[in-house]
Amino acid sequence: MTLSVQFLTLIAMVSSGFYLGIIQETFRRFTPYWKNNIFLTYFLEISFWITQTAIIFYVLYRVNAGELRLYIFLACLLGFSIYQVFAKAIYRRILERFITILAAIYRFFRSLINGVIITPITWTIGLVIRLVLSLITLLITIVFSVLKGLFTPVKWIGKGIYHVLPNNLKKILHKIAGFYSTMKNICYKCVKYLKFKRR
Prior knowledge:
By secondary structure, the chain is an all-alpha fold. Helices cover 90% and strands 0% of the residues.
């Protein structure tokens, strides 16, 4: 390698070490979010170091065609040490401020979406459901009232006729009345359920 290439390699590796300090600090900041998941922790750790090694080697390849020397590792370690001594505290403050800003932006847009889109849609759907249930309940009530009014005279006439009927026919009518009573109870339960759902 020429002297200029060696100098560029030295600068690139010091910068790569500094970058490695920054990216590792960022990665460690978010590690607590998945530390309870052992599989995810190992997967992300391995992926992180493989990715960073590939990035640094790509930089080295662009500078000196990937030729490895001892001073390259020392330069990378020097850049990492410079970050730890001079820039770590400053970067941590910048990173925390940046995370705080991103979290505030996320909360703002989440509240905006909930207030402008989700809440009105939920309220509208709930209103439509309540109106439909109210309409169904009203129709059932009207139908029952009309049927009750129509069948009251029939009921009176039927009671008069019932007393003069033979016993066999009375037993058949008792079975029909039991079926009618069962269906009536089911209908009443449906109406009560709809009224409850409407609330």
